Amino acid sequence: MPTLSPSQLPSHSSVAIVGGGQAGLSLSYHLQQRGIDHVVLEKHHAMHAWQNQRWDNFCLVTPNWQCKLPGHEYSGSDPHGFMKKDEINAYLAGFRAKVDAPLIEGVTVRRVAPRAQQAGGGFGVSTSAGDFTADQVVVASGGYHLPIIPRLAERLPAGITQVHSEQYRNAASLPEGAVLVVGSGQSGSQIAEDLHLAGRKVFLAVGNAPRCARFYRGKDVVDWLADMHYYDMPVHEHPLREGVRDNTNHYVTGRDGGRDIDLRRFASEGMELYGVLKGLEGTTLQFACDLARSLDQADQVYNGINASIDKYIEKNGIATTEPASVYQATWVPAQERATLDLAAAGITAIVWCIGFQPDFRWVEAPVFDGRGHPGHVRGVTQQPGLYFLGLPWLYTWGSGRFSGVARDALYLAEKIDALRLREEEPNESAEDMPAYS
């Protein structure tokens, strides 16, 4: 089925999918398998985030074999490698062509709200191309909507260039001079490395993100964790329960075939590390004195994951070519530094890498908590017919990966089909109703 134009917006659809990324198209694939009428609405164009919100040297942090979108598994020659940005987009373009979803691009969904039963039930959907109704709605627009930039950014000197991680492309896109990267999660640590490798002077405000090894005892750590079923553990079985959804992902990289990201090594090579950014006074930034603790905690997680792999190897009698090992710090901060004068340090640009906030204000249903996050069980909300797909830890750690999205989409397709069949069952007539005395 060809991509539709906004003028072809239906007056009614059995299912409305909001979001044309890998999550929305994965669900479309499974709905097509079941012959369920649906439409996919995308504000920009399909796979927009992958094409427009990644830096030039971006690559996957999980090996290629984990790319298992429905009906479209990775089939290249390097299953244990890490696809680069252009390769990822080519893979996703192939998936889009294969799914051939009833997709309408360039349409913004402005409001989704349940309709009263006397008005026909289901949902009213208001869009930039007009309004329509749907029996069921799936929000597949992800959870990374509003870039987080602290208010102190408004008081920074006008001459300093500020970009969020979603806007960063390469070192040459920033003015000459030193660069401050704020945040050390996956994006922050990799962008700091990108700038460092390009020969730029980098200052990095380190947060509490954990880290893990790229390879350990002869195999990618992701391979070990998959063998150990870490990516299959449902959120309700995790020790932190739903609290795990607030965790920051471990930093590691697939660049140049994959390697650890070791901030201590960067520091020994000239990168300047600070603690968490706390404030601004004039041109002087203020930081928490927690750098040493953050580095130690990241290393503790690193060694803890490796120790769990050691136990798995020993328990299962697995032969390996490499012995167990423990990471030992190669650099420690001589002292905690609480301030940094931007002018004296020659900093001309800041890259904010402190994440995103969700923005589901257009979904008018009583399913959200005080922070704007939807309450759900495996994507199913308490509002009948309303679902979420493509969120981190929607069901498992793997939900944030291509293979996990495919599994989550299949589950929701089954739920959607079951509700559709129930609603299509004819109502019992009065004579069929049981009699009571």
From TrEMBL:
GO terms for molecular function: flavin adenine dinucleotide binding; monooxygenase activity. This is FAD-dependent oxidoreductase. It holds the Pfam family Pyr_redox_3. Keywords: Oxidoreductase. It comes from Rhodoferax koreensis. It comes from the Bacteria.
